[in-house]
Design goal:
With 395 residues, the chain is an alpha/beta fold. It contains 15 helices and 17 strands. Helix 10 crosses helix 12. The model has no long low-confidence stretch (mean pLDDT 91).
Length: 395
């Protein structure tokens, strides 16, 4: 990373000075990602894809959406016994818009009668990203609208909410041990030899509300295994996000696809720096203070915290698995076999590229380690059948 990207940008320096020189890490993360003028997402500066700052499953090609589409169709069909029932596919944080477009095409081609009753609803808080989505989705085969959870809550929809690599970008609190108790980590502006730089320092002890999120995990105190300086994350924004999503959906499902760990792994003593990472131009960095406004910042989800927050906000957990397992259950092996059957010398480069992309989707050391976690709301909370992606693999 160049020295220019590692310096403190003037906008951030002025903002920190305005706030007394220090802010909670969650505030810094929200600025760095979502500030409309300077944030990586807010400004639209961040590029998603194999040639961008980081790649996602949909950015590797249309096969991910093609495998996901039968699960969406199965859910939507359960909600549409009447031919005039209106349904919504709501994607939150839709990135470049690739997944939304690919799913619209799959539904229109594979389930045309169902697709005629469906709309795409994109919940994108960042104007810079929304502008690129509008351009890509101009010719989508389904009606598309952009809105917010708050607006949807005035007329809740029925359908499916997709949260693909969204919750890991919610601003988190960084918590650090002082050897006796947890403290909220701060981002401070410091000067050394006349040069400004950012630093992470311990702040005030966690509030009772913040500690309450750790108590079910038996982590209300760091304990001797997490000595002074041991640091991790606390997803304080997860509950409010799930509550807003619940208010937007009258009946249907929520599918979360993200990096997630069980609490015993997330807060393991052997993980002294947490899970927070910065991504820029296909490179990962452990320092979240590098290139503010130019990097993606993500923190893994804690599965137990997600389950507790979902239950508290009216969602019914339906289960989950790793992405590799989900995609095999949805027919990835058959798709790979189909590529072999259709191989010709003229199509060989295309088929090899698709094969490589499919294998990346289930690589247990990369995208295959994503978790798929499903939740239901309304009458769907007592499902008639197990979600397709939790079925035994199709081999």
């Amino acid at each position: 990373m160049s020295p220019a990207l590692s310096s403190v940008p003037e906008w951030l320096r002025q903002r920190l000075l305005h706030h007394g020189g220090a802010v909670p890490f969650s505030t810094y993360m929200a600025w760095a990602l979502h500030d409309p003028d300077h944030g990586a997402y807010g400004s639209g500066r961040l590029q998603i894809g194999p040639r961008g700052d980081f790649a996602t499953s949909p950015s590797l090609g249309p096969d991910f959406a093609a495998l996901l589409a039968p699960q969406l169709a199965a859910w939507l069909q359960q909600l549409a016994p009447a031919p005039d029932a209106r349904l919504s596919v709501v994607e939150t944080g839709p990135g470049e818009g690739s997944l939304a477009l690919q799913l619209a095409r799959e539904l229109a081609e594979g389930w045309p009668d169902l697709a005629r009753r469906c709309e795409l609803v994109l919940v994108e808080p960042n104007a810079g990203m929304a502008a690129r989505q509008r351009e890509l989705l101009a010719d989508a085969p389904l009606p598309v609208r952009w809105t917010s959870f708050a607006e949807l809550a005035t007329a809740p929809v029925r359908g499916v909410v997709l949260a693909h690599e969204v919750l890991d970008a919610l601003a988190v609190e960084r918590i650090t041990s002082d050897g006796q108790q947890w403290r909220r980590q701060l981002v401070t502006l410091q000067t050394s030899a006349g040069v400004d730089h950012l630093a992470l320092v311990p702040g005030q002890p966690l509030t009772a509300t913040q500690l309450a999120l750790l108590e079910p995990l038996q982590l209300a105190e760091p304990g001797p295994q997490r000595p002074c300086g041991w640091t991790s994350e606390l997803h304080t924004g997860m509950g409010p996000w799930l509550e807003e999503a619940a208010g937007a959906l009258a009946e249907g499902w929520l599918l979360v696809v993200d990096y997630a760990l069980e609490a015993w792994r997330y807060y393991a003593p052997s993980r002294p720096d947490g899970t927070l990472m910065a991504y820029h131009q296909q490179r990962a960095y452990g320092d979240p203070l590098l290139a503010p406004g130019h990097c993606d910042l993500t923190a893994h989800l804690c599965i137990e915290q997600l389950e507790a927050a979902a239950t508290a906000t009216g969602w019914t957990p339906l289960g989950g698995c790793r992405q590799g397992e989900a995609l095999l259950a949805l027919g990835l092996a058959q798709r790979l076999h189909g590529l072999q059957e259709g191989a010709t010398s003229a199509r060989l480069p295309e088929l090899l590229a698709r094969r490589e992309a499919l294998l990346r989707l289930v690589d247990p050391h990369a995208l295959g380690d994503f978790r798929w976690l499903a939740y239901a709301r309304g009458a769907c909370s007592t499902p008639a059948e197990t979600p397709l992606f939790l079925s035994p693999p199709l081999l």
